[in-house]
Amino acid sequence: MSIDTLKSALPDYARDLKLNLSSLADEETLTQQQLWGTFLASAIASRNAEVIAAIEAQAAEKLSPEALTAARSAAAIMGMNNIYYRFVHLSSNEEYHTMPARLRMNVIGKPGVEKADFELWSLAVSAINGCGMCIDSHERELLKHGLKSEAIQASIRIAAVVHAVAVTLEAEAVSAQVNKAQEAA
């Protein structure tokens, strides 16, 4: 499985997604580790088995075992943090802003890869999960580490396209089930 597998699974109406997958797989503003870690963390955050399998297979050819684990860790920890901090941000009760989270987040301090790469993957997942507080926090860290706006934007473009591919493939699977049920009736 690979990006090409995903492109061939997409329907004709999603031609733009096919084109975007191709161009983003060749994105030059990110290192190979940043690029494929972003693809993998975004795939996991998008929660589609077909997308995860295809991207993980290709990422495994490009990333070290440590980077693969760190990308998975970014998706896992942001799955928790994005919910918690989105609640803190959206709640009208200011008391939550002063309370400690009391959640384990050790992997953020020791991700097993360059801190900037882990922050980039965390930012992409935070964008998918819609946590503005986390997006702001990770972007600040990336700028402190010297990443340019173009690299940050590239990671978000990857997250957006990977998520759109997952949504499209889910919709196609549901459509196929509905059509099969209607034919059987």
Automatic annotation (TrEMBL):
Protein's job: Antioxidant protein with alkyl hydroperoxidase activity. Required for the reduction of the AhpC active site cysteine residues and for the regeneration of the AhpC enzyme activity.
InterPro entries: AhpD, AhpD-like, AhpD_core, CMD-like
Entry's family note: Belongs to the AhpD family.
Gene label: ahpD
Protein EC: 1.11.1.28
GO MF, one example: peroxiredoxin activity
Residue pairs linked by disulfide bridges in the UniProt entry: C131-C134
Key words of the record: Antioxidant, Disulfide bond, Oxidoreductase, Peroxidase, Redox-active center
Domain (Carboxymuconolactone decarboxylase-like): residue spans on this chain: 95-174
HAMAP family the UniProt entry points to: AhpD
Enzyme class: oxidoreductase
Domain of life: Bacteria
Reaction equation(s) it catalyzes: N(6)-[(R)-dihydrolipoyl]-L-lysyl-[lipoyl-carrier protein] + a hydroperoxide = N(6)-[(R)-lipoyl]-L-lysyl-[lipoyl-carrier protein] + an alcohol + H2O
PANTHER family (alphabetical): ALKYL HYDROPEROXIDE REDUCTASE AHPD
UniProt-annotated catalytic positions: C131, C134
Protein name: Alkyl hydroperoxide reductase AhpD
